[in-house]
Amino acid sequence: MTTLRIAGGRVLLPDMTVERADVLVDQAAGEVLAVGGTDQGDEHLDAEGSLVIPGLVNAHGHAAMTLLRGYADDKPLGAWLQEDIWPAEAELTPEDVRAGTELGIVEMIKSGTTAFADMYFEVEEVAAAVDSAGMRARLGHGIVTVGKDEAAARADVEESLAIAREFDGEAEGRLSTAVMPHSLTTVSEECLSMAVEGAREVGVPIHIHINETRDEVEPIVGERGIRPLEYADELGLLEEENFLAHGVHTDERGIELLAKTGMGVVHCPASNMKLASGMAPVQAMLDAGVSVGMGTDGAASNNDLDLFGELRDAAMIGKLAADDASAVPAEQVVEMATAGSAEAIGIDGGRIEAGANADLAVIDFDKPHLTPAHDPVSHLAYAVRGSDVRHTICDGEVLMRDREVLTLDEKEVRETAEKRAVELVGRA
Ligand SMILES: CSC[C@H]1O[C@@H](n2cnc3c(O)ncnc32)[C@H](O)[C@@H]1O
Ligand SMILES: [Zn+2]
């Protein structure tokens, strides 16, 4: 057994208290062995002046969209997708998706994220990138059936199921999958039912966008006389293992359905603000017992993959939405981006204790903007930036040491992504 000792720092414990402690990791098992006064360990990571936290979990995104960062801004979701993003995505090659995903992964590792959920195309490439980078991820092929004939639509669902079967449990268990219909308005009722049934057969969750904008709610109410979550419930989509992105336009009845069924919600505040989608009722969801995680969404609607920005945004917009400065407090957003996200996407993570997955981030608190440190949890929510992350560890492996990414060549990843992005938008 090779052990890694993260020594000399303070540690964020599952009850959100902070203690001076070392963390000893069994690298082969990828598990935390002990927290406190530990053995020396074979390898050492310095955490002096730093806080060891659970690796952040980005519970909703499209990593390869880093290639479209800054390509189309300042539009609402529908126009943004139809006028800019989908035409560009129609030109994507598997090599583009690999390059964009690697860039997204470098950005996530450098900002303390150790696991993420990803909905996209060319999932073989996404899986290969995650495997070689050493991260943990729940991946899936995004199904869109609007504009397709029946055979092509069914083939898209079949592809999502085949991908879910193929990659679940790969990369020594770091990869898991889900069936991923894009939304209730971009996938036909028949294909949504096929996806629900197929996911049950394969034994994986469903990941879908729901209640993101009013433009999604209105056609469903107009056509069916019920709101999106009631429609999703009729389809059998609201299950404890499933999770939806956004949930902005969720009313009281919708919150009740989420709480009753255990369906997880992934809050993406930056994307919701940028696309002017609205303010999710996060405090009301939490009060009702809904499982809430956090996500960045893609880099074209955020425009970065630094989850620390999401923590701050969630705490800020949560107060505005509830008209209450005590709503969505610091501890709550830290919980949401760690244990909450892990629970929502169904992976083991988000806590530091013996036996837990060794997915960790070490934050350097020796910074002007983190001085004084009255309350480290307050700083995590309101003041820490991704660039304050010193080391990132996933499954016991050090992915970044003293800000040097060890599993990917950052310079090469950036150069390749830059070149492919320029060529991609040239073709679009
Ligand atoms: C079918 S793969 C995923 C699909 O989703 C698109 N997308 C990116 N961001 C959003 C968002 O906020 N709402 C809905 N859809 C989004 C992405 O461009 C892919 O086409
Ligand atoms: Zn999305």
Please, could you describe this protein's structure?
The chain is built from 14 helices and 20 strands. α2 (94-110) crosses α14 and α11 crosses α12. It has 2 domains: 3-54 and 350-405, Roll (Urease, subunit C, domain 1); 56-345, Alpha-Beta Barrel (TIM Barrel). The chain starts with a strand and ends with a helix. The strands form 4 sheets. It has a 7-stranded mixed beta sheet, covered by helices on one side. Strands 8, 9, 10, 11 and 12 form a 5-stranded parallel beta sheet that branches. Strands 5-4-1-6 form a 4-stranded mixed beta sheet, with no helix packed on it. The mean pLDDT is 98. With 428 residues, the protein is α/β, with parallel strands linked by helices. It has helices at residues 77-89, 94-110, 123-133, 150-167, 189-202, 214-224, 228-234, 252-261, 269-274, 282-288, 307-322, 330-345, 376-382, 410-427, and strands at residues 3-7, 10-12, 18-20, 22-26, 31-36, 43-46, 50-54, 56-61, 113-120, 136-143, 175-177, 180-181, 207-210, 243-246, 264-267, 292-294, 360-364, 389-394, 397-401, 404-405. 40% of the residues lie in helices and 21% in strands. The protein binds ligand LTUXU72L and zinc ion (ZN). Ligand LTUXU72L is lined by residues 62, 77, 85, 89, 119-121, 142, 144, 182, 209, 212, 271, 297-298, 301. The ligand CSC[C@H]1O[C@@H](n2cnc3c(O)ncnc32)[C@H](O)[C@@H]1O is lined by residues 62, 77, 85, 89, 119-121, 142, 144, 182, 209, 212, 271, 297-298, 301.
